[in-house]
Amino acid sequence: MTLPTAATRRFQWFSQGVLLYSLGVILWGAFVRATGSGAGCGDHWPVCNGEVLPRAPSVQTLIEYTHRLTSGLATVLAVALYVWGRREFPKGHPGRRAAFWALVFMLTEGLVGAGIVLLKYVAQDARLGRAVWMGVHLTNTFLLVGAQTLVVWASRGRARMALRGQGTVGAVLGLSVAGMLVLGISGAVAALGDTLFPATSLAHGFEQDLSEAAHVLLRLRVFHPIIAVGMGALLVFGGRLVARLRPSPDVRRASAWLTGVYVAQLGAGVVNLVLLAPVAMQLVHLLLADCVWMCVVRLCAAGLAEDAPRLEPAAEPASRVEPV
């Protein structure tokens, strides 16, 4: 194995720093939503209340404007990651493609955010269209974090991925990715319901969910914990199956991390529910959701690696036909 050069190590640190910074921006965006500060700049974008630098801003304006500034810096970092990635990785390398898609999803992240502002899906707006845009926003965020995670993975000299001929492993990993996207969207809708229709007690929250007159966001919110438990079982057992069929150290490590982080995520979800979704717990819950997603991406990268050892399930022996 070739030792990394000083330039390679610098790129590794930079790619990790970009990923961590992006997570911080994502959490601040959730803070904007949870505090109802999304209308802090009105329905203006990219300016704030018609001004480049808002004068005498309110607290909500400062929160929203700070998010826009940090998002702008995240875009600059994504451009730098792509340019540096083109120099670091040869043509056709998955790391270069991952850096490209990280930039694409960063740009679409900004466009989705702009759409939410311009359509006034902010503050206390409870239209169903807002839930749809939240789902789109969450999906794009996951894809962005996934692409940046793959850049970090590739920067460490990991093997390329082979998507074809993966059999059971490919099916399990594909189902895990799709399931995580569904879980993330349901979590975004549940968080929106918590923000718009806060419960005064746990019993009141259950009454809200089960009421025939409940808003559609509250009716959708009840599905999130059910999906979370089901996905937990899929990820834990699926991760162990992949670790058994692709028994490399990277796969086993990714599977163990996935199990541990998902257990922590479920625990945070229970605490979030019992405490009636305080802002701090919403942020912790979201951070752990992103960490679970990164573990799934790492498991996919390790399990689909070209040099991963393969142990496919034993095929059933063909029935033997006796000659007449």
TrEMBL record:
Q: Give the pathway.
A: Porphyrin-containing compound metabolism
Q: Which GO terms describe its molecular function?
A: metal ion binding; oxidoreductase activity
User: Where, subcellularly, is it found?
Assistant: Membrane
**GO term, biological process aspect, one:** heme A biosynthetic process
GO cellular component: a single term:
membrane
Q: How does it sit in the membrane?
A: Multi-pass membrane protein
Pfam families named in the record: COX15-CtaA
Where do the TM regions start and end? 12-31, 65-85, 97-119, 131-155, 167-192, 222-243, 255-277
Alphabetically ordered keywords of this record: Cell membrane, Disulfide bond, Heme biosynthesis, Iron, Membrane, Metal-binding, Oxidoreductase, Transmembrane, Transmembrane helix
- The answer on whether this UniProt entry bears the keyword Ribonucleoprotein reads no
**Chief location bin:** membrane
Q: Which PANTHER family match?
A: HEME A SYNTHASE
Name of this chain's protein? Heme A synthase
Q: What is the lineage of its organism?
A: Bacteria, Pseudomonadati, Myxococcota, Myxococcia, Myxococcales
